[in-house]
Write a structure and sequence with these properties.
mainly alpha
Length: 142
């Protein structure tokens, strides 16, 4: 099963699953069958079933990441071509960005406070176990 942990096999599997997910969405027409979401779910299930560590998968993912960076930079060209339309819609764009930042910050603060809040219903293991003296020193006492 060493081929399952081969980074090139995992890259190929990622592309095959993604293409299959695209075909599934096209044939069914169901918008919720997002190819990226389906690919992630199938890959996670596959990795869990086969016992493949994420670090092993990430080694192959570095190759994908390498080729995606130029694609992201290339998105700047269409954005530049639409600069006038973006300028006309600047206020709604900025308000949407601000709303997203505020909601994200509120959610992050909310989850941090609930996670850090003390849980009085259960004691920690160090509080539940009374401290005892070693047997050798207990026998020497009085």
């Amino acid at each position: 099963m060493s081929y399952l942990e081969n980074k090139f096999f995992l890259i190929g599997l990622t592309f095959i699953i993604y293409v299959a997910s695209q075909l599934l969405q096209r044939r069914t027409g169901i918008a919720y069958l997002n190819p990226i979401l389906i690919s992630i779910a199938v890959l996670i299930a596959f990795m869990l079933c086969c016992g493949i560590e994420y670090d092993t998968y990430a080694e192959g993912g570095d190759y994908i990441d390498f080729w995606l960076k130029p694609a992201v930079v290339a998105l700047g060209v269409p954005l530049y071509r639409q600069l006038e339309a973006i300028k006309k819609q600047l206020l709604p764009i900025l308000l949407a960005e601000l709303a997203g930042c505020v909601v994200t910050d509120l959610e992050a603060n909310d989850s941090t406070t609930s996670r850090d809040a003390p849980n009085n219903s259960a004691k920690s293991t160090t509080e539940a176990i009374p401290a005892t003296q070693p047997a050798s020193s207990a026998s020497n006492i009085g």
